[in-house]
Amino acid sequence: MFRFQRRGDTFEQVPVDRIRDNPYQPRTYILSEPHENLKRSIEQYGVIVPLIVSRLGDDFILVAGQRRLLAARELGLSTVPSIVRELNPRERMEASYLENLHREDLSRLDVVEMFDRIRRRYPKVSEEGLAETMGLAKDDLDRARYFQLLPAAVQAGVRSRMISEEHAPVLAQIQDPDVQLEMIELIYQEKMSVEDTREAVDRILRKEPPFVTSDGSVHFHAPHCPYAGLIPEGDRHTFFSKKEGARKGKIACMQCL
After folding, report:
1. Are residues 241 and 225 in the same domain?
2. Residue 121 lies in a domain
3. Where do the H-state alpha helices sit in the chain?
4. Coil, strand, or helix at residue 247?
5. Which among 11, 84, 209, 221 could disulfide-bond with 238, CB atoms 3.0 to 4.6 Å apart, if both were Cys?
6. Residues 3 and 59 placed together within one structural domain of the fold
7. Which pLDDT score is estimated for 112?
8. Integer CA distances (angstroms), 203 to 72, 149, 199, 221, 238, in order
9. What CATH number does the domain containing 45 carry?
10. What is the mean pLDDT of each successive set of 10 residues along the chain, which is 257 residues long?
11. How many domains does the chain have?
12. Whole domain around residue 182: which residue ranges?
């Protein structure tokens, strides 16, 4: 339970109303179901794993334990068990990030936005130097910035884990935010794969179906395949995904796919 303690740390029951929120918290989205489960656990057993805090005058700054602190506040607890660690502002930032990075499955959105907040706070630190300090690859961060360009609804879907990062660029093709939200809900409820999602989005956008077959053929083809050109126009059946082709009992053409 005390694996995060080090020399100089003290263990105290810290008043909840004296703990300030962590300005470097990487995660900006709290999942409702796990949060309610955590509240029920704390209500029954108390806070088992201590928070990590740092002194700031007469108050404390949260270093690690955002969800436990939020649950304690909502349950009206007066104090929470905490490891009090003496840290300067930069050490608080580094400790907070590393605790969360190693203990939580942060989305790439959370990581890159955390990185950018720290860069704004410490502009003299190079991007390469900060990335190295955090154990991050600069190239990975640059690629992750793509997610910051996604529509707000799609970003929210990734953060809430209703959709995966692989679903995101497929959904971003849809312009209507209401349709985006409907698709996110459908993906979550129906456990749709990325291929299923791509098929649904292509239908929504009324794209040209990328595969063709016929009743008498055992194969399905891409439209540019020479064999596809041999199928009479009136006998053609089109569909949007390889999975859909498999459902029709067809096999992919090895010459074109």
Report:
1. yes
2. no
3. 32-45, 66-75, 89-103, 108-121, 127-134, 138-144, 152-159, 168-171, 177-190, 194-204, 242-247
4. helix
5. 209
6. yes
7. 83
8. 47, 24, 6, 18, 12
9. 3.90.1530.10
10. 58 93 68 78 86 89 88 93 85 70 67 80 79 76 86 88 92 92 90 90 81 82 79 79 78 78
11. 3
12. 150-204
DSSP string, 33-60: HHHHHHHHHHHHH---SPEEEEEETTEE
pLDDT of residue 60: 94
Strand partners, 53: 62, 84
Instruction: Tell me the C-alpha to C-alpha distance, in Å, between residue 45 and each of 40, 82, 99.
Output: 9, 16, 23
Kindly state whether residues 28 and 81 are assigned to the same domain. Answer: yes
- Pick the closest to residue 14 from 74, 56, 67 (CA basis): 56
Residues 11, 83: one domain? Answer: yes
Residue 247 pLDDT: 80
Q: Which tokens sit at 23?
A: 């300005």
Residues 32 and 66 in one domain: yes
Query: Domain end: 39, 59, 87, which one?
Result: 87
In this structure, are strands 59-64 and 19-20 parallel, antiparallel, or unpaired?
parallel
